[in-house]
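User: Look at the shape:
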Amino acid sequence: MEPVNFLFVKIFARTKYFSFVFWIFNIFFLLCNRVYEGYSFYMIGQRWAYLDNFRGTFRWHICFNFVVLRMISFGYDYHWAHRDSHFDHKKHIQRCDICKSGKTCYQSLQERGVQNDKFSFMTYLSYLVYAPLYLAGPIVSFNAFASQLDVPQNNLSARDIAWYGLRWVFSLLLMELMTHLFYYNAFAISGMWKELHPMDVFIIGYGVLIFMWLKFFLIWRYFRFWSLICGIEVPENMPRCINNCYNLETFWKNWHASYNKWLVRYLYIPLGGTRRKLLNVWVVFTFVAIWHDLEWKLLSWAWLTCLFFIPEMILKSAVNAFQVESTHGEFVVRELSAVAGAITITCLMVANLVGFVIGPSGISWLISQFLNREGLPVLAGMLLTFYVGTKLMFHIHDAKQSSS
């Protein structure tokens, strides 16, 4: 598929309908890989069927999801480089603190484009199978990757990289401690949470989120550490702790951050960006669900997230309007934001429980558990706790702003 994609890009990149056909081409293969579970030898012929008994435990079609993202990145970067060959990207890049210091940030590497000879098949193949990022990312754009082949990253010194690896070891020890002392994930997988009190369900739901955050934190930082040793800087996934996110937009920018950058660059902005935000989030999150796997519970998770996004967007617009008109705007905005933060954290817990634990069939059970005599006080206490936690996040943000 990789050589076919390369030829497709080279032939059709300068045509008017490239984007439409290119997306269909890649999504088609993405779905085929999942439907046929990586394909079987018996599809070639019956005499080859015996080889299916030796497929092993490594499911290449799962990791191939990341390869599809890299193929799309290569195609679009090549398409934009030739469509906008007269366009000087450097004039449109806002210089950040990193760039002002004489170093080059990731955003600059991604946006300024590369020389035409970098779009060769060997560079393309190296990008697709780059070992440190092949299994799980973080996701790096083709422009950023190709730019660092001749000039390795200079933002982090050897000492910085060593300290980064040591912090990863400390995080691994924390994970070991958590899995030995707290059994959130075991309760969720076994289904025993259905027999528990609503307060216990709330604690398990929140614990599962913390477990998932730390698990992916370890995976992504390990591979980023490996990539940094090789001289390729990639975006940091999980740059902010999950307990320091109080709205959906901040959460998604700081969860799978490199994937968020990819989605914004190659899907959200081409669809119209903020001009069609209410419509675009449905397309983006549906793609995210399909990209992860073909399961109804993931589609339920994606569409629930979109539903939760809509009131947040409306509330932000209303708050901004109220802030302009009211003399007490700052106080009211912070209070409304804290209430919205409490609701958002609760919605995130529900969406992730539905998407990764209980499935869409468990929504009615979850609602019935929290909207009865025992569950309502727990729900009220949960919202109050998250309200206080959100106010604490505001103070942390203010302290950082005043110190910088």
Remarks:
- The chain has 18 helices and no strands.
- Residues 39 and 300 are 27 Å apart (CA to CA).
